[in-house]
Design goal:
The chain is α/β, with parallel strands linked by helices. It is built from 14 helices and 13 strands.
Length: 356
């Protein structure tokens, strides 16, 4: 390879007429690309790995390497701590409408953050995701972001009827507790604010995430992405030899959403038991490497016949737990010291947020 053609791999300002041979790709891969007519950056720019694979016949792992190599967001920027602190202060939160959960999460599901919900089946992971899709659409004075959401469903657990119940409850609460805002949300308007993708394998998940990046550029009201669940397509797919690369590329796309588009990402994960019988822990699936990607890990589990949410990983939060319960209205605080209806409990929280 001509050394004069080798460019700085950390330079983000690569021109479209720069040869692919200037990137840190193997000579055999460069040769395969050249044989198929892919010689310059412009030839592969904008292509997805699966599209490059379909056109060239090159294995998907190598196609992932090519696409990653030409991405312009590989720039290693030098930042000052003050700048990082100021950018962190621009994060917003989506209320869970559960006081205990909001408290241990520092206000709710944060933007610029990937929150992982782990837990056994039936513990309330999907329900909490559906509730977030509704609450993100409320104004900031009520714990929302006045935005919209995208729900990527990999297991077929998305329930339109359950979502309708939550929307109806929130609509009624807003109308009865905040008449001064002149808000008139309807069940139909709240359902319209949720964009739905049904994916059956990891390739479709990757394509959907890429699609969300495009949607967000067209519609900046999209502030929340939910993937329910991230584990299923990677645990039960046929692309065993390519899963590591696909998983890595998917997480890169998710990081782009939270870092560059100020979005909140919520992903659900399966759990497995780790321990020697005397000391047992619940841990998320997809291995140890995956555990580094989420910013916040929230494990939902049973404790003495009660549902409990525990923060087990968060650089800016203390490990803590909160009790909750599942009701027709969604996820609610576990009332212990006083007896009151779920409606009244949530009503008081909305009123408190309005007057704070």
């Amino acid at each position: 390879m001509d050394s004069s053609k080798i460019a700085d791999v950390n330079n983000p300002d690569r021109s479209e007429d720069e040869p692919l041979s200037s990137f840190p790709l193997s000579p055999s891969l460069i040769s395969k690309l050249k044989d198929e007519g892919f010689i310059y950056v412009a030839d592969v720019k904008g292509l997805r790995p699966m599209e490059l694979h379909a056109v060239t016949g090159i294995n998907l792992k190598d196609c992932l390497a090519v696409v990653r190599a030409v991405r312009k967001d590989t720039d290693n920027k030098v930042l000052k701590a003050l700048q990082i602190t100021r950018e962190g202060n621009h994060s917003s939160h989506i209320s869970t409408f559960c006081r205990g959960l909001d408290n241990i999460l520092g206000g709710g599901f944060a933007t610029r953050s990937i929150t992982e919900l782990s837990g056994s089946p039936g513990i309330g992971k999907t329900l909490l995701c559906l509730q977030a899709c509704i609450s993100v659409q409320l104004p900031t004075t009520l714990g929302g972001l006045a935005g919209e959401s995208v729900f990527i469903d990999t297991e077929g657990k998305f329930s339109a009827l359950r979502l309708k119940d939550i929307a109806a409850h929130v609509t009624q609460l807003v109308k009865t507790t905040t008449p001064q805002h002149n808000l008139e949300p309807t069940v139909e308007s709240l359902l319209k604010g949720i964009h739905y993708f049904r994916c059956y394998n990891c390739l479709e998940v990757l394509a959907a995430v890429r699609r969300v990046c495009s949607l967000q550029k067209e519609n900046q009201k999209i502030k929340l992405l939910v993937i329910d669940s991230i584990a299923y397509p990677f645990l039960y797919d046929d692309y065993e030899s390519e899963l590591v690369g696909l998983k890595s590329f998917t997480t890169q796309e998710l990081q782009d959403l939270v870092n560059n588009h100020n979005m909140a990402v919520i992903i659900t994960n399966h759990v497995t038991i780790r321990g020697d019988g005397q000391c047992v822990d619940l841990v998320g699936e997809l291995g140890e490497m995956w555990g580094h990607y989420p910013t916040v890990r929230l494990i939902l589990h049973w404790k003495d016949s009660e549902r409990v949410a525990s923060v087990t990983k968060a650089p800016h939060l203390c490990n803590a737990e909160a009790k909750y319960e599942v009701t027709i209205a969604g996820i609610e605080d576990k009332e212990s010291s006083e007896v009151c209806s779920n409606h009244e409990s949530k009503k008081r929280r909305i009123e408190a947020a309005t007057h704070s």
